[in-house]
Structure formats: structure tokens, C-alpha cells
Amino acid sequence: MDQAAFKNKRLLGYNENAVRTQIWIAVSVYVLVAIAKKKYGLSQTLYEILQILSISILEKMPINQLFQPTQLQYFKEQNPNQLTMFDL
């Protein structure tokens, strides 16, 4: 496999078996994410999907909910008794 295609910056082991195992794991994850992207019709890139999955790996949430648009919540007004940190 071309070193430019494999963008792992650090390896956990350097003997032949360890490197082969890590490459197979990286390829397997890539394929699984590509399958999930197609199955759920996600518009994000594979890199963005991997980033979202890496920060939410311990969340107990269905994968299709991770990629739904979020609703922003706006606060009506600040509490006048609360001090502000910056004068904006």
C-alpha cells in the first residue's frame, strides 16, 4: 500500500505483523464508514464523519441521530443581576 494513501501518523507496533494488522484495521474502518455514509445518505465527507464518530464514540445514541441537523437554542435575554465577563 502506498504510504501517501495510508495517513496514520503513528503506529503502535513496528514489526511486520503489527503494521499489517494496523493497515487492515484502517482499511476496514474506511469501508465501514463508506457503507454507513451510503446507507444513511450523509452529506459529510468521510473525514468529517470519522471526526464526528471519534468525539462521540462513547455516546449512547443511534448513528443516524448523530448526523441530523441540530436545533439552535437562543436565550431571550440575559439576567440583569448577572455580571458580564466582556463588554460587547
Question: What are its keywords?
Answer:
88 residues; mainly alpha; elongated
Question: What does this 3D model show about the protein?
Answer:
With 88 residues, the protein is mainly alpha-helical. The chain has helices at 16-40, 46-55, 63-66. 1% of the residues are buried.
Rg over alpha carbons: 21 Å
Q: For the record, give the distance between the C-alpha atoms at the N and C termini, rounded to a whole number.
A: 54 Å
Helix/strand/pairing category: mainly alpha
Mean pLDDT equals 79
- DSSP strand tally: 0
Helix content: 40-55%
Listing every helix as H and every strand as E from the N terminus to the C terminus, the arrangement reads HHH
Q: Would you identify the regions where 5 or more consecutive residues have pLDDT less than 50?
A: 1-5
Please report which band the strand proportion falls in: under 5%, 5-15%, 15-25%, 25-35%, 35-45% or over 45%. under 5%
- The coarse silhouette is elongated
**Total helix count?**
3
Largest sheet: none
SSE blueprint and pairings:
Blueprint: H1 16-40, H2 46-55, H3 63-66
Can you describe this structure in just a few lines?
This protein has 88 residues and is mainly alpha-helical. Helices cover 44% and strands 0% of the residues. The protein starts with 15 loop residues before the first helix and ends in a 22-residue tail after the last helix.
